């Protein structure tokens, strides 16, 4: 408890690094700089500089893991339902039944809702990353759904090698796959989620 009181006292006695003479409201969750209420983003717990700094790019492993999570979320429920139908109706080709695709449609709607609010699918939210436009602004749902997801899937249907070429582009300095360049997007670490994890550490 004494450590907490000391921390509160240190903040109350500190001054804003950008506005000398103004008392600090918070210590930035990213860099630790004391900042006043005018500079602070209470939503993210970051100072003005960190909030407006170029976001850190997501790692290749984080993007791969997020893609695997999203793929599993899309396929496993339908596969599970199909297996249950096969066990219940052994004489029918249950995997071809339209009802088997209902969970996939539900997952797609859920993912679209998540992307609309945060720019991050279920997998990306779990990994603390999100999709933004090239200039850092939030990416629209249609840009993510059509240009980043649907178009690459269609092209892979016509040319299997497209998927490999698309993935290899991530080794570049900007860590952008080919579909990122087409959609004008990049995948970055979510500042707000990073701030929350830093405060909880």
Q: What does this protein look like?
A:
This protein has helices at 2-13, 48-52, 60-88, 102-118, 122-127, 141-158, 161-168, 178-183, 191-200, and strands at 26-27, 34-35, 129-133, 185-189. Helix 3 runs antiparallel to helix 4 and helix 6 packs across helix 7 (161-168). The protein is elongated and about 80 Å long. Residues 194-201 have low confidence and may be disordered. The chain contains 9 helices and 4 strands; from the N terminus they run H-E-E-H-H-H-H-E-H-H-H-E-H. The two termini are 17 Å apart. It is 55% helix and 7% strand. The strands form 2 sheets. The chain has a two-stranded antiparallel ribbon. Strands 3-4 form a two-stranded antiparallel ribbon. It is mostly helical and 201 residues long.
